[in-house]
Specification:
- The complex is a heterodimer of chains A (129) and B (384).
- Chain A has 129 residues and is mainly alpha-helical.
- Chain A has a domain of 61 residues: Cytochrome Bc1 Complex, Chain D, domain 2 (Orthogonal Bundle).
- Chain A has five helices and three strands; from the N terminus they run E-H-E-E-H-H-H-H.
- In chain A, helix 4 runs antiparallel to helix 5.
- In chain B, a hairpin with a 5-residue loop joins strand 7 and strand 8.
- With 384 residues, chain B is mainly β.
- Chain B folds into two domains: 172 residues, Oxidoreductase, molybdopterin-binding domain (Sulfite Oxidase, Chain A, domain 2, Alpha-Beta Complex), CATH 3.90.420; 110 residues, Sandwich (Immunoglobulin-like), CATH 2.60.40.
- Chain B is 6% helix and 35% strand.
- Classes of the chains: A mainly alpha (129), B mainly beta (384).
- Strand 2 of chain A pairs antiparallel with strand 9 of chain B.
Chain lengths: 129, 384
């Protein structure tokens, strides 16, 4: 592949400029930028409107039946499972560090006795050597 | 409404790393189709084809990232208040009307990019949201200068930093509320804004309605959403999110070797240049011997785009492209060029040099958080 020979100089800048004009790229352009500062007196009024929305919930659980019981019971109250399930495979020590951060930095209320089951689940389902 | 991350009843997309599958959901308010990274708290990625449609990213396609799951779903513009407290002469409790009508209005185009944008491409892989390249967007922000708000409160001598927080909260009350701070000089530079509009409209709730901090040229972790409290500090900010989170190795580009020790860690800060081809996908086929338009976007990071160049020979020779209209130094900049492919496999590379002379590196950086990814992008194409 070669860049079009003309693309090396001014001529091509001009050609590309024409292309830009004729094919209409960029395809979507907002109006020209306003001055950086707009005096607020005399500027068009901007009116904010109250907002009420619904945020979706997730029904996804960690797969694995009984082996996933502890992680499902402890982790889903603060976050849905999706991002965990899309993690790459990681060493067990990395998973242990993540669970430790959830408990000690982010204050996840996990009993000491349950931490190992969560780390084991993650190292088994999303583990690397 | 229930959004399912694994029931692929809706559209789906494959990202170029494992695990690759993601749902594309229309289930979030004020949002069109978004790549679902996590339902709660929401992590929504902008589908990459959006970046080919214009230099500004539409609000309903703009990526979404929240740390904590308690996010207000109703905001009453009549009762909302922005407080300014701490080391000031006069504490403030501002209504939205006082902010919109009572302070000088400013506008600025600026890229908002997650610290971990493109983390999924990091090798060796690291934990965190596995974003492709769509945890970024460019908008025309409208609002007021943070400096004007601070001046109204009167910053006392001895102040050193300004801390920001919003209406979102952790599920567990003991968990650290999300807060970020900026040095006072930075906060008062006249560029840092409190935005009440993006691209001419009020912000979508998930992008921080009604107010969002805009920190031009800096990663999005500082762009606090649903901003409702500003605190002027007379001592260094010791909160978790400033002191312990969002740290990078104190090296050029935040780069280190896996397992390397003895490095100082500092808060992530200024963005670095990036560039992308937007009208061709990796693996695409081209017609050999025919002029083909290649176009895309670039941004300089903490300054403008000086140039964008293309290579078709693995990075040995670089050829110029034509830049689109300059929307300001913190904005995306469009670029384009024509190429004439000869038959065979082609590695098409694009690189940006910013106005500070910083060039995208050939190799991607590595750090344990997957922050500041900005290596030169390569598309593998076939011409026939």
């Amino acid at each position: 592949m070669e860049i079009n020979g003309a693309a090396l100089g001014f001529a091509v800048a001009a050609i590309a400029g024409l292309t830009l004009a004729f094919i209409g790229h960029p395809p979507v352009q907002l109006p020209a930028p306003a001055p950086t500062a707009v005096a607020s007196s005399g500027a068009t009024a901007f009116v904010l409107k109250s907002v009420s929305v619904d945020l979706p919930t997730s029904t996804v659980v960690f797969p694995g039946g009984a082996t996933a019981e502890t992680i499902n019971a402890n982790c889903l109250s603060c976050h849905s499972a999706g991002m965990v399930l899309t993690q790459p495979n990681l060493p067990k020590a990395t998973w242990a560090g993540i669970v430790d951060k959830m408990i000690h930095a982010y204050k996840a209320p996990v009993d000491d006795g349950e931490m190992a089951a969560i780390v084991d689940y993650l190292a088994t389902t999303k583990g690397s050597k | 409404m229930v959004v399912s991350g694994s029931a692929w009843g809706q559209a789906a997309v494959d990202l170029p790393f494992t695990p690759s599958g993601r749902a594309v959901t229309k289930g979030f308010p004020q949002k069109g189709p978004m790549i679902l990274q996590r339902t709660r708290p929401p992590l929504l990625e902008t589908p990459f084809e959006v970046f080919d449609r214009g230099v500004f990213t539409p609000n309903d396609s703009f990526y979404v990232r929240w740390h904590w799951a308690v996010i207000p779903t109703e905001i009453d513009v009549g009762t909302f208040r922005l407080s300014v407290r701490g080391h000031v002469d006069k504490e403030l409790s501002l209504t939205l009307k006082e902010i919109v009508d009572g302070l000088p209005r400013v506008e600025l185009a600026a890229v908002n990019q997650c610290s971990g944008n493109s983390r999924g491409f990091t090798e060796p892989r690291v934990p965190g949201a596995q974003w492709a390249n769509g945890a970024m967007g460019n908008a025309k922000w409208m609002g007021v200068r943070l400096k004007d708000v601070l001046d109204r409160a009167g910053v006392k001598a001895g102040a050193t930093a300004v801390r920001f927080a919003g209406l979102d909260d952790p599920v567990v009350p003991e968990a650290p509320k999300f807060m970020k701070s900026l040095a006072l000089d930075h906060a008062s530079d006249g560029e840092v804004m409190i935005a009440y509009a993006m691209n001419g409209e009020q912000l979508p709730l998930l992008n921080g309605f009604p107010l969002r901090l805009v920190v031009p040229g800096w990663y999005s972790t500082y762009w606090v959403k649903m901003l409702d409290r500003i605190e002027v500090l007379a001592a260094p900010d010791e909160n978790f999110w400033t002191r312990n989170a969002y740290l990078i190795p104190d090296t050029p580009g935040g780069d280190m070797k896996p397992g390397q020790t003895g490095l100082g860690m500092v808060p992530i800060n200024r963005m670095v240049p990036r560039s992308f081809v937007t009208n061709l996908k990796d693996g695409a086929s081209l017609k050999a011997g025919t002029k083909t338009l290649v176009r895309g976007i670039a941004f300089g990071g903490d300054t403008g785009v000086k140039s964008v160049e293309l290579s078709v020979d693995g990075g040995t020779n670089w050829l110029p492209t034509v830049l689109g209209r300059d929307e300001g130094k913190y904005s995306f900049r469009q670029w384009q060029a024509e190429v004439m492919p000869s038959a065979g496999n082609v590695a098409l590379m694009v690189r940006c040099t910013n106005d500070g002379g910083l060039v995208q590196p050939a190799a991607n950086n590595w750090n344990p958080s997957g922050f500041m990814h900005n290596g030169i992008e390569t598309l593998h194409l076939k011409a026939a």
